[in-house]
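Q: Convert this sequence to structure tokens.
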Amino acid sequence: MLNFELYNPTKLVFGKGQIEKLPTLIPENAKILLAYGGGSIFKNGIHEQVHKSLEGFDIIEFGGIEANPHFETLMKAVEIIRKEKIDFILAVGGGSVIDGVKFISAAVLFEGNPVDILKKRIIFKEGSAVVPFGTVLTLPATGSEMNSGAVVTIEATQEKLDFGGSAMFPKFSICDPTVIASLPKRQLQNGVIDAYVHVLEQYLTYPHEGYLQDRIAESILQTLIQVGPSVVEKPTDYALASNFMWSCTMALNGLIQKGVPSDWATHMIGHELTALYGIDHARSLAIIGPNLYRVMFETKKEKLVQYGKRIFNLTGSVDEIAKEAINKTVDFYHTMGMKTKLSECAEDYAKTANFIVNRFEERGWKALGEKQNITLDKVKAIVEMSY
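A:
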């Protein structure tokens, strides 16, 4: 196993009715910015629950954080916090709202141009001057409720960029599986696939000696396959909902990537599809991932075989199992309502590969993946194969 440090200070409060614990989790006399997205928390009663729980606290609300949070929108919240001297932020929403709040937290006290947080991928280490925040999760998918990373879109330049650091862990996250009951089917489908690909990014690399990490990763994949199709149809089933929510958190809370190599090239390419065409994040991953495995087949073949045997019980030759493992992955994506071709999700896509390659070259992203062997020519091939 590789050397690693494991640090995760987020207090996770999981289960039914846990929103009522909010006043015990937020510092007394805190002035709170309540941040949320498009307003679904008003329809499903979560807004009312939060306000009832926080009766007596000074709260200022900030809504309208996008599904891919925009830098421009988040900066409006930064100005409110500075003006109103707010000292705690509560994110009530899914991964996008939580990611947005992470940026707001970092930007308020940042000395310099806040866009550099994204452009230069600045790391905020423990002890950095940030505004503390907690979360109430309403959409399982990204694991942002228990990790220290975030992705933000700069609308002006159509860029989707990430940043993070150990100061970006939420102080606490309340995860009540019953909240998914009112979610649209599409969002549930996205959540399952988002978590699934998060695991693959940390697992589908090459054989190594992190045996336990592999087994934990495989258990998350198997659980998502087991509950994914059913939770979309029966989100009020608590067993399905709770296992779905916990799988999404475990997929990206940092545990399964410790001591082992990880990839993340599917995300880096997929982010560009979201920034260019507004394709849902999970759906961009479903488009890119399988073709990345095909282009990088020789590099990933051994791990694809392990994946195929352990997850799908495949038999045959090495090449047969590895290729069929990719096909089975695509089949699962289709079962979960994903379209796996760019042409099914966007128009005028013919120049996409060249655009992404040029953008990566400008950023200096010339070698991606666990072996840094996904070069720009490979990126081009992956995107073109995804048309």
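The beta strands are 11-14, 31-35, 58-62, 88-94, 133-139, 149-154, 159-164, 172-175, 367-368, 374-375.
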